[in-house]
Design brief:
The protein is α/β, with parallel strands linked by helices and about 290 residues long. The protein contains 13 helices and 5 strands.
Length: about 290
């Protein structure tokens, strides 16, 4: 018996061997386990999926984890069962929300209220006068994978000056898009015009110190939509909506992030040089924009 205990401690024996040495049947062993152990073992296959959902968004509660399991993996588990599993696996302890401290920039925007939206008080009459930016989620590989697309687009001429695709919505995503936009504008007119409006929502990416610093150092002017008002940036909403509507079949067929990157770059070239707009006199954005450049 002592020898058996030592081997168990070293993890060298299977459950069957332990039962033989200790004079127990396997049925007796399993019937006397704690109910929590049996319950956790029953759903052991689910643990890695739950961990992945929580890793993707640590703020998800039971209801949203349950919904994500079904939406992303077609796995159904009851709410009470899931809550019990989270407790047994100690996963719920990792989902504590921390209040995010507002940056100085965000405090200023709150104090200024709707006065931060310079776009609605400015007459936009030609290209390279105002640029808007936003981020959208793109689902690909039949909805199994997702990426985020940031775009900087001319409000009047509709031309996409900059875009960036990433796996996360960090500030770097919009900064990369901004830097590409600045390069595109310089190719058209040599330099960034003074007082070029750069409009976006008040998301943390657009109110980050690095993004705002790069905009202001380029002699551009920051403009922000009022929180909770997507109608103050309708051009971006329309652009993303049409992109997903036109390309959903292609997105479903794309299997990798690299493949998605190539497709998005090709689509942006098509959009700028081929796709005509009624708002630009049935011209593609690049041709329409060039007609304004002296």
């Amino acid at each position: 018996m002592r020898f058996a205990r030592e081997q168990v401690a070293l993890g060298l024996f299977s459950i069957s061997r332990i039962c033989i040495l200790c004079g127990l049947s396997k049925n007796t062993y399993y019937n006397h386990r704690h109910p929590d152990d049996s319950f956790a073992a029953k759903y052991d296959y689910l643990k890695k999926l739950v961990e992945k959902v929580i890793k993707d968004d640590c703020r998800y509660g039971v209801e949203r984890i349950k919904a994500a399991l079904w939406e992303d993996h077609k796995v159904y588990v009851g709410r009470d069962a899931l809550a019990r599993l989270l407790r047994l696996w100690s996963l719920s302890l990792k989902r504590k929300n921390k209040k995010t401290k507002r940056s100085v920039i965000q405090e200023i925007l709150i104090a200024l209220s709707d006065r931060v939206n310079l776009l609605i008080r400015t007459a936009i009459t030609e290209p390279i006068q105002a640029v808007s930016s936003d981020i959208t989620e793109i689902r690909y590989n039949n909805g199994k994978d997702k990426a985020y697309l940031a775009v900087h687009k001319d409000i009047f001429g509709q031309m996409v000056y900059g875009f960036a695709l990433g796996l996360t919505m960090e500030a770097k995503l919009v900064i990369d898009s901004l830097e590409m936009a600045k390069q595109s504008i310089r190719k058209l007119i040599k330099k960034i015009p003074d007082k070029l409006l750069c409009h976006s929502d008040q998301g943390s990416q657009y109110t980050s110190y690095e993004y705002t610093d790069r905009v202001l150092k380029s002699n551009m002017i920051l403009s922000y939509s009022t929180p909770g008002t997507p109608t103050e940036n309708p051009g971006q909403e329309s652009f993303f909506g049409r992109l997903k509507e036109d390309c959903q079949d292609e997105f479903n067929e794309i299997k990798s992030f690299k493949e998605l990157e190539k497709f998005i770059a090709k689509r942006m070239r098509y959009y700028n040089t081929k796709r005509i707009h009624t708002s630009t006199g049935l011209k593609a954005p690049f041709k329409f924009t060039r007609s304004f450049i002296k």
